[in-house]
Amino acid sequence: MALAPASIRGSFSVDRYPCASFSEARPSTARLSSSLFQGIRLVFAKETMNSRSFTRADLHSRLCARCAVLESVSPTSQGDMTLVNVDLGDRSYPIYIGSALLDTPELLQRHIKGKKVLVVTNTTVAPLYLDKVIEGIKGKGGGVIVESVILPDGEKYKDMATLMKIFDKAIETRMDRKCTFVALGGGVIGDMCGFAAASFLRGVNFIQIPTTVMAQVDSSVGGKTGVNHPLGKNLIGAFYQPQCVLVDTDTLNTLPDRELASGIAEIIKYGLIRDAPFFEWQEKNMEALLARDAGAFAYAIKRSCENKAEVVSLDELEGGVRATLNLGHTFGHAIETRLGYGEWLHGEAVAAGMAMAADMCVRMGWIDKSLQSRILSLLERAKLPTAPPRHLTTEMFRSTMSLDKKVADGKLKMILLKGSLGNCLFTSDFDPKALDATLAAFCDK
């Protein structure tokens, strides 16, 4: 298995959010230099965005704080398990990554609060892992009571009606303010259980046990929770951080091929927006990922979580840099909404969305065609779509994109690639004619 080359890249720009890349093994001096560089860029980007002035002392204080955050998220390995920290001050939490972690119940037990636990899962995952998780929690002793609620499986059930089933179970079993909700499943379960935890009794403890690639590399990390609305995806939700994320890589052995490929779309995204060496590593190792090579996946999950943790530590509530994690999502969410939730998997829609974003960037001269070709090639090798269904019209895209969460003051903001591999922008300053041309190229009408 090839390793990511040791390099640190990135360019300074007041209106650009940090998209520098980091290697797996790097000396402390390199981390400090990169942290300082990232901190300077973030401070200026945030101050420009918020139109606030600051003194030299303010700048020094904020740079020190940002450097401390970036230094603290470096992963440390403990045997076969890797630990990545999401640094959010007193709400920081670990991401445990490794094989057979569900057979190491003490990891889960140390984060259980109170005497009552509600495990939220679905009809697909429950027969595979629910009993093991319940036994692991009960092994803590002390009379812990574990209840469970099994929801139907699929994106189409990520709605308010299904969410109420979690509240019904929590109320019926008399869960209290000290209880812990445990999400056992993919992104849908994680988002819904997290939103329920944020809302029940105005907030209870919450643990993520993601069982899909999509959830392990993206949705379980960072505290985004919520449900869909018929008019738009993830329009109802909250930011609510878990106590920990437990990633047992063995759960991928039971994942269908289509779900596996869907999750790889988010892995590809990290390379495109901020980690060029990781993208290059994927170009060399895509077949190993599709073959479920344990070493390849362990590295891909770890590197993805490092990228996500760094971004969330800098911008928890998506005021700027965190929005760059949504490359391809503006187009992708429109595809999901218009087709009907569940017709395409999230990663499939995001893959097509990234292809559309790349097309738009080429039309504006922001990236060259050689990079676009590499993007399309990697998506195709990952068995992912590179275009939406042709019957989706330009008007369908426009009306749905107008409801996107990133619309502000009537202006659509998009995440777009600009410059060399690993650089991106979150901006409303794009050529609308390029967007028109891209939609026309991918749609029948």
UniProtKB/TrEMBL annotation:
Q: Name one GO molecular function term.
A: 3-dehydroquinate synthase activity
Q: Which cofactor(s) does the record list?
A: NAD(+)
According to its UniProt record, where is this protein located?
Answer: Plastid, Chloroplast
Q: What is its main location?
A: plastid
EC nos: 4.2.3.4
Q: What Gene Ontology terms for biological process does this UniProt record contain? A: amino acid biosynthetic process; aromatic amino acid family biosynthetic process; chorismate biosynthetic process
- Domain named 3-dehydroquinate synthase C-terminal: residues: 263-407
Q: Which domain of life is it from?
A: Eukaryota
Name a GO CC annotation attached to this entry.
chloroplast
Q: Which UniProt keywords apply?
A: Amino-acid biosynthesis, Aromatic amino acid biosynthesis, Lyase, Metal-binding, NAD
Domain 3-dehydroquinate synthase N-terminal positions:
149-261
Which positions make up the signal peptide? Answer: none
- From the UniProt record, give the pathway where this protein acts: Metabolic intermediate biosynthesis; chorismate biosynthesis; chorismate from D-erythrose 4-phosphate and phosphoenolpyruvate: step 2/7
Catalytic reaction annotation: 7-phospho-2-dehydro-3-deoxy-D-arabino-heptonate = 3-dehydroquinate + phosphate
Q: What class of enzyme is it?
A: lyase
Q: Which InterPro entries match?
A: Dehydroquinate_synthase (IPR050071), DHQ_synth_AroB (IPR016037), DHQS/DOIS_N (IPR030960), DHQS_C (IPR056179)
The record describes the protein's role as: Catalyzes the second step in the shikimate pathway.
Similarity comment: family membership: Belongs to the sugar phosphate cyclases superfamily. Dehydroquinate synthase family.
What protein am I looking at? 3-dehydroquinate synthase, chloroplastic
Query: From which organism does this entry originate?
Result: Ceratopteris richardii
| Taxonomic placement | Eukaryota, Viridiplantae, Streptophyta, Embryophyta, Tracheophyta
